[in-house]
């Protein structure tokens, strides 16, 4: 099994790191389905809660999405440094060649506001490799969600202030 590491996003935003981290990491189970239902229909906790390392949450996608759900396990949370590490352990959003994926999301305070870096470690089945078109789809999806969250937070400065 090979592991392939890719930077899926390296984005700057005028929104404060604390607000982005709250919306995209700690409270995404509430924030995303309510404000961006076209990205996630619902988020359910299978084990634990959003502040617990080891919690497992299932993200259910809208009916028109090309896949139905993913289950993520939170591996590390560092709220002081705006860092989240989680593993996608189940779901139909990956090609059959991926065993599982580990993601690291870091929100760094910058002169512009925030620099958000999202890195994926794809653990492949056998000697499979990740296809460039699958990576592009993942990158595009992340950018769309990030920009939609950013726009909402800019338009609503009281949210997570």
From TrEMBL:
GO cellular component: cytoplasm; nucleus
GO molecular function, one term: protein phosphatase inhibitor activity
Family annotation (Gene3D superfamilies): 3.30.530.20
Chain ranges of the Bet v I/Major latex protein domain: 1-156
UniProt cross-references to Pfam families, sorted A to Z: Bet_v_1
InterPro entries per record: Bet_v_I/MLP (IPR000916), Bet_v_I_allergen (IPR024949), Plant_def-hormone_signal (IPR050279), START-like_dom_sf (IPR023393)
GO biological process: abscisic acid-activated signaling pathway; defense response
Family classification: Belongs to the BetVI family.
Protein name, entry field: Bet v I/Major latex protein domain-containing protein
Organism of provenance: Chenopodium quinoa (Quinoa)
């Amino acid at each position: 099994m090979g592991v392939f590491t890719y930077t899926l996003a390296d984005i700057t935003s005028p929104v404060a790191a604390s607000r982005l981290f709250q919306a995209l990491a700690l409270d995404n189970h509430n924030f995303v389905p309510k404000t961006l239902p076209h990205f996630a229909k619902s988020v359910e906790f299978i084990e634990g809660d959003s502040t617990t390392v080891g919690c497992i949450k299932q993200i259910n996608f809208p009916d028109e999405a090309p896949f139905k759900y993913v289950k993520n396990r939170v591996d590390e949370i560092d709220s002081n440094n705006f860092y989240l590490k989680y593993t996608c352990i189940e779901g139909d959003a990956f090609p059959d060649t991926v065993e599982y994926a580990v993601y690291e999301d870091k929100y760094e305070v910058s002169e512009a506001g925030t620099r958000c870096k999202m890195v994926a470690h794809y653990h492949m089945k056998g000697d499979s490799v990740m296809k460039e078109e699958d990576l592009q789809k993942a990158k595009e999806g992340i950018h769309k969600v990030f920009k939609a969250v950013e726009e909402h937070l800019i338009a609503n400065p009281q949210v997570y202030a």
